[in-house]
Design goal:
alpha/beta, 51% helix, Arc Repressor Mutant, subunit A, single chain, 202 residues, six-stranded parallel sheet, Rossmann fold
Length: 202
């Protein structure tokens, strides 16, 4: 019997997945969580064989963070990232974080059960269409510092706040934001953030 943890902040999706997996004779959902921190705690408490984790969840860490934490604290638990946002850079970051599979939420009904079995047996799985996109996707043109500052600029945070969090001067923050916007053809930092987020660079 393969023991499974489900983590998704949308109750309807999580409950539907649990019901779907419950029909499989060799799978048992032993725990559910609605956020990243709860997912890590539940994994440490129940020690599942496989954790199916939504990419974007509230309550600190996101799916990538959960994968990274479990890779360190519970390496016997294989992580499957389930997402509605299958962008190539996110695929690379998920694999680097320790995830064993990356599956879009729009996949066929039986695909998740098959992927759980695959990763439990030691294999990896990446959706073929997403893998093909990843091979042809242009690289991110922004530096790590530009990405860091742009990430902190979410919700139109003031430059003073960004500077304090990044440990930089306000002038340096403005320069990084301007450079990032120029490189990706954005009219300002709000548009630069949106474009970077849509491409999965953040």
């Amino acid at each position: 019997m393969i023991r499974v943890l489900l983590a998704d902040d949308e109750d309807l999706i999580r409950t539907a997945l649990a019901a779907l997996l419950g029909l499989e004779p060799d799978l048992e959902v032993v725990a559910q969580a609605s956020g990243g921190r709860a997912a890590v705690d539940a994994a440490l408490a129940h020690r599942p064989d496989v954790a199916v984790v939504d990419l974007e969840m509230p309550g600190g860490p996101d799916g990538l963070g959960v994968a990274a934490e479990l890779a360190r604290a519970l390496p016997s638990c294989r992580v499957v990232i389930l997402t509605g946002h299958g962008r190539p850079p996110l695929l690379q970051r998920a694999l680097e974080a320790g995830a064993r599979a990356f599956l879009p939420k729009g996949s066929p009904g039986g695909a998740l059960a098959d992927v759980i079995r695959r990763v439990h047996s030691g294999q990896r799985y990446v959706d073929p269409a997403l893998a093909a996109d990843a091979l042809t996707a242009p690289p991110c043109p922004l530096t790590d510092r530009e990405l860091e500052v742009l990430r902190l600029a979410e919700h139109d945070a003031p430059v003073t706040v960004i500077a304090r969090k990044a440990g930089l001067s306000q002038g340096t923050v403005r320069n990084y934001l301007a450079a990032a916007a120029t490189k990706i053809g954005a009219s300002g930092r709000a548009e630069a953030y949106r474009i970077a987020h849509e491409h999965g660079w953040l």
